[in-house]
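User: I'm writing a short report section on ligand binding and want a predicted complex to refer to. Could you take this sequence and zinc ion and write out the structure as tokens? A short remark afterwards would be nice.
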Amino acid sequence: MYWNKTIETLSPADLADLQLKRLKTTLAQVMKVGFYQKKFRDEGVRLEDVKTLADVSKLPFTRKQDLRNGYPFGFFAVPLNQVVRIHTTSGTTGKPTVVGYTRADLDTWSELIARNMTMVGLTKDDVFQNMVNYGMFTGGLGFHYGAEKIGMTVIPSATGNTKRQIEMIQDFGVTAIHCTPSYAMHLAEVAEEMDASLDTLKTGLFGAEPWSDSMRAELERKLGVTAYDSYGLSELFGPGVAFECPERDGLHIWHDCYLVEIIDPVSGDVLGDGERGELVVTPLMKEAMPLVRYRTGDVTMTIEDGCLCGRAKKIARITGRSDDMLVIRGINVFPSQIEHVLLKIPEVGNQFMVYVDRVNHLDEMTIDVEIDKGHFSGELHDLARIQKKVMKQLRDALELRTTVNIVEPGSLPRFEGKAKRVVDRRGSM
Amino acid sequence: MTETRNYIIKQISVFSENRPGRLAAIAHALEEEKINILAFSIAEANGFGVVRALVDHPKKAYDKLTSIGFNVAFTDVIAVKMRDEPGGLYEIAKILGDAKINIEYSYAYSGKEGAVLILRVDNAPAAITGILTGGGTLIETSVFH
Ligand SMILES: [Zn+2]
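Assistant: Sure. The structure tokens for the complex follow:
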């Protein structure tokens, strides 16, 4: 199902025309922002230099830190009396990032949410419980307005009081939910404890944190939903930037609103389809806070193959943050790729540590991984077999030879919050 | 079958990284529980190893080591008495060879039962039958609690 079939299935040529037109409008809009006036002047970039979509690569990047430096309203391209809403994203350090919306921005944003929800088969006949924070976080109001636009029956339940959430699902006959995957897991567990049936549910929209395919399978089994991955970030309106279609093999990103590039996070070079790198987005429909080549920090790749649903090019599910990337013998490695490999090998745990050394001018990567308690047979040759298996699967996934140490269960550090799994010893002696 | 079962002994196999102090930690933990280590060997490869030990209370040893975080498994082994004089090992080896028993590993100890050879074989019941028929003497399970 399509919310806006014409735009969602534009031919590649028509889409490119529309993108270029909107890019030019956006660039005119960003020149109202002091930061960009100075940046473009300092870097000797002129708007006339952007004649094609590919020319966007001549423009400078915008980083999260730039937005922080602009606190609070430094990136607004319109007077405050045209800004009808403000959200912030929590900064782990220092000031939050402020994002602002004009009335047209809110319309565009809710249109994208409406497209996503329609794409996965939701209609005005659905009853939708939105179990995310409704405050400064964009997830609450973002989905709320999109669902209302479709005409769904919206329950703004927000977070907390899980028992009450379950009662509402039952009493109101809720068919679709939106929350973080970890909250969905909690919901499922509480429902199990209460012996409560959630059999009206059919669709689960999950986002705002990374979740694995095995978690998807578990959520679907426990909640009786089909689960879809939702991607977005406040700097690009909020949730709704990209979303899985029923194929659930990558996320459709809305190219009429977002000009997508994947770059090598170190060199800044633009990468091709199938090459993993950092997602860089130039929003094409933002009025209050237009951005140029915004570095999301999220790692993905564009998928060359088309999709059965007829929408444009997809991106892969996010597999980590670009800050974590390592360059080993010229090959980009993300710790999340290692995690992904380990998740699929039952004989080892999911905790790991990566050590990088330079030995005889060559980068050497060593990965410590715990044996899974239940898979220790007592035999040395079984351990050697597990070690070989892990090395082979890592080599296949990373295209890189690594050394794997099998270590005792529970011996690797556990991290609360941001994990520091990589020790790069190449700089030190 | 009932008969061969009487000769199968539970060796404890402990996963251990090759780093200083791991063996001491295992030995200390067993000492705390007053568990006697009759024999042990260490097998290692590529940075990790397995400490194999024959103890007088295998179950107690398993529980203790597991409780302090070690990864422990039971491994079925058999223990053959060996004449403690020249030719003692040859005698046993010949019996095993004649019975076509495949040895995965072995280690020995000398205790109040005399010299004992501990064997990990691919087919323990067949090995037991072969050894007994060949005139060898096996230590019974009941020696261990
Ligand atoms: Zn699709």
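A remark for your report: The longest helix of chain A spans residues 12-30. The pocket of zinc ion is lined by residues A 245, 247, 252, 307, 309, 311 (CB under 6 Å).
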